[in-house]
Amino acid sequence: MTEATMETTRPSAWRKMLGNTGVMIGGTLLAVIVAIAVLAPVLAPHDPLAQDLTRRLLPPFWHDRAVPEHILGTDHLGRDYLSRMIHGARVSLGVGLGVILVSGAIGITLGLLAGYFGGWIDMVISFAITTRLSLPIVLVALAAVALGGASLTTLITVLGLLLWDRFAVVTRAAAQGLRHQEFIMGLRAIGASRARILFLEILPNMRATILVVVSLEVANVILLEAALSFLGLGVRPPTPSWGLMIAEGRDNILFDPWLIALPGSALCLLVLAVNLFGDGLRDITGPARK
């Protein structure tokens, strides 16, 4: 591709993104949440782990008994709820990024090998994908985390080893379509190594497809982390996690429903932002729009 062609292609891609409602709304929400997570130590007004039992279960600002120092109130241990909400964004995004790195590395590598080489390699990897698809993710994750102990590292490792199948399926299909292209045949003819063809030629040509899978899988990971934390098999207390905050507030759901409503709303907003962004990218990069 010539330099002039690249210059005309980039603005066109940006115009498509700016003209897509899902990308704009989802991307804006996601950028705000990411900024909050990155700047959590600066934005949080209090220490999210500091307890003050004399100020336990203070209501948010819209109640008559609200305290100005705690805009969103406090939890059952007197910890500032706004600070825990802000730091909870770090946990959700951190788990999502960590799991995607692990599962993406496994799935993309297996998909490339299966799609490019075919034959018995494709059969073995396809069998592995089918085996993984037959496993119930939540039940396997519950058992693995229960055996390995609830921790952030264990959670990322277990989910990363369970969520690679979609990367493998998409990458395999894309590699099968690219391996017979003329530029790949030309590289083979001049004696280019297989590693160069796979990782420097085929892989960059499917980056848009992989990006869509990443954006959609992040939402799934975030929900799984919240579910496991809610069940007590995810992030360990007192680490602020939105799923854990929902679990801690369920005993007071009748009298202080905001303990569940606030982290639940934040979780829904984050998943909505990721899904909108992913759907928008899929619309832009799909075959019908090319």
List the helices and strands and how they pair.
Blueprint (H helix, E strand, L loop, with lengths): L2 H17 L1 H18 L1 H4 L37 H37 L1 H15 L3 H12 L3 H11 L2 H14 L3 H8 L4 H9 L4 H24 L11 H8 L8 H28 L5
Helix pairs in contact: 2-4, 2-13, 4-5, 4-7, 4-8, 4-11, 6-7, 8-11, 11-12, 11-13, 12-13
Describe this entry's structure for a reader.
Helix 4 packs antiparallel against helix 5 and helix 4 runs parallel beside helix 7. The chain is mainly alpha-helical and 290 residues long. It has one domain: Orthogonal Bundle (MetI-like fold), CATH 1.10.3720.10. The two termini are 17 Å apart. The protein is 71% helix and 0% strand. 35% of the residues are buried. It contains 13 helices and no strands. The N terminus is likely disordered. It is found in: Cell membrane. Belongs to the binding-protein-dependent transport system permease family. InterPro entries: BP-dependent_transpt_permease, MetI-like, MetI-like_sf, OppC_N.
Concise structural overview:
The chain is mainly alpha-helical.
